[in-house]
Amino acid sequence: MRLLTHNMLSSNIKGVTNGFPLRIEVEKVVEKEVDLNMDFLRNMFAKIEWKALVEASRTMGYSELPDDAESSMLDSDEFLRKFHHALLELHLEEGALVCPETGRKFPVNKGIPNMLLHEDEV
Amino acid sequence: MKLKQLDGLLGSLQQSENPKIELEQYPTGPHIASRLLYTAENSFGDVSDKVVADFGCGCGTLGLAAGLLGAEHVIGFDIAAESIEIASLNADELELDMDFIQCDIRNLRLSDRAIDTVVMNPPFGTRKKGADMDFLSMALKVASGAIYSLHKTTTRDHIKRTALREYNASTAEVLCELHFDVPQLYKFHKKKEVDVAVDLWRFVPNNNRPKHL
C-alpha cells in the first residue's frame, strides 16, 4: 500500500470522529521505483494532507520530507523527487493501520489492509 | 495502446474459481472492460495521469485496464480476500502497481475528492437488494471527476432519478447499452449462457457540495 492511499483513508469504525490519519505499524516496507510525473505531483500536492504524509513516511523509515511544505517548493526538482518517493515508491507490505481514536488495528498483509469491521463496530 | 491489445491482455487474466453468489461475483469480461476504459480515456480523458478507484474490483480487471491505459495510481476495493489475492497476482503478471483494500464499500471512509475517477461493475442488487445503489452512492461521494458504472438496463430510470436527486450527481448519462454474456457460473444457472442487457453509465458528481470526511 502506497502512502498516497494511506493519505486518503480514515478509520471507518462507527462513532469515531478523529479517525485520520491512521497510525502505521511497520513490519515490512518495500520500495518500488516508478517514473516521476511532474504534472501529477503538482495536482496531488493540493489534495494531500502534508503532515500525515510526513509522519507516515518517517514511520516507514524515510525522513527527507520537510515538516511544512508550500506550493512554491514544487519548482525544486529535489523536492519533487522526495515528494514522489514518499507518495508513490514506499509500500507498506506487512504491518498494521491503527485507528488513532480507538487503537483498533487493521492488519496489513502482502500490502493489503483489511478494513472489514466486526459487528459491533458497524 | 490499441483496443485489441488491451482486450488481449485483459483476456489473459485469472478469474475466481469459486465465485460467491451472495456477492454476485461475476467477472467483467475483457470485451466490456476494454471498451469501458477505452471510452473513459479517449472520449473523456478520465484515465491517464489520474487516481482511479475500482469499486468491487473482484479479480482486478477494470483497475488493471486503467493502469494499462496510463492511470497514475489505481486502488481496488473488494470485500472478498480471495478475489483480492487473485487481483494481486494479475497485477504482478501485468507488472502493474495497484493498491488493494479489503472492506465493505458501505462503510468505507475516504477523503472527499482524493479520487479522480471511479470505474466499477457493481453487484446488480439481485441477491442483496440495493447493493447497486450502495456502490453508486459511495462512488458519487468520493470521485471528483467521473464515475463509470454498469447497471441493468431494466433499472435505467430508477438509477437516473436517484443519482440526480439523491446522490448529488450533476449529470447521469447512458453512454451505451451492452450485452453481458453471463456464462453458466452457478449451479442455479440452467442455461449455458444468458444475455443480460446492461447500460454503461457515466456520472459526474456535483463538486459544489460542502466537503466532509
Summarize the structure.
Chain A: InterPro entries: Trm112, Trm112-like. Chain A: Belongs to the TRM112 family. The complex is a heterodimer of chains A (122) and B (213). Chain A is of the alpha+beta class.
Describe this structure in words.
Chain B: InterPro entries: DNA_methylase_N6_adenine_CS, rRNA_MeTrfase/Polyamine_Synth, SAM-dependent_MTases_sf, Small_mtfrase_dom. Chain B: This is Methyltransferase-like protein 5. Chain B: GO terms for molecular function: nucleic acid binding; rRNA (adenine-N6-)-methyltransferase activity. Chain B: Belongs to the methyltransferase superfamily. PrmA family. Chain A is α+β, with helices and mostly antiparallel strands. Chain A has a single domain, classed as N-terminal domain of TfIIb (Single Sheet). Chain A is built from four helices and four strands. Chain A has a four-stranded antiparallel sheet with strand order 1-2-3-4. In chain B, helix 5 (131-142) links the parallel strand 4 and strand 5. Chain B has one domain: Vaccinia Virus protein VP39 (Rossmann fold, 3-Layer(aba) Sandwich), CATH 3.40.50. In chain B, helix 1 (3-11) packs antiparallel against helix 2 and helix 2 (30-42) packs across helix 3. Chain B is globular. Chain B has helices at 3-11, 30-42, 61-68, 81-93, 131-142, 156-165, and strands spanning 51-55, 73-78, 99-102, 115-120, 143-152, 169-183, 193-205. By secondary structure, chain B is α/β, with parallel strands linked by helices. The chains are: A alpha+beta (122), B alpha/beta (213). Chains A and B meet through helix 2 and strand 4 of A and helix 4 and strand 3 of B.
Determine the most extensive contact between two protein chains: A-B, 31 and 26 residues
Strand content of chain A: 15-25%
Please, how many helices of chain B?
Answer: 6
Quote the average pLDDT of chain A. 97
Could you name the CATH class of chain A?
Answer: Mainly Beta
List segments of chain A where confidence is low: pLDDT < 50 over at least 5 consecutive residues. none
Number of domains of chain A: 1
GO molecular function, one term (chain A): protein heterodimerization activity
Subunit structure (chain A): Interacts with TRM9.
InterPro entries (chain A): Trm112, Trm112-like
Protein name (chain A): Multifunctional methyltransferase subunit TRM112-like protein At1g22270
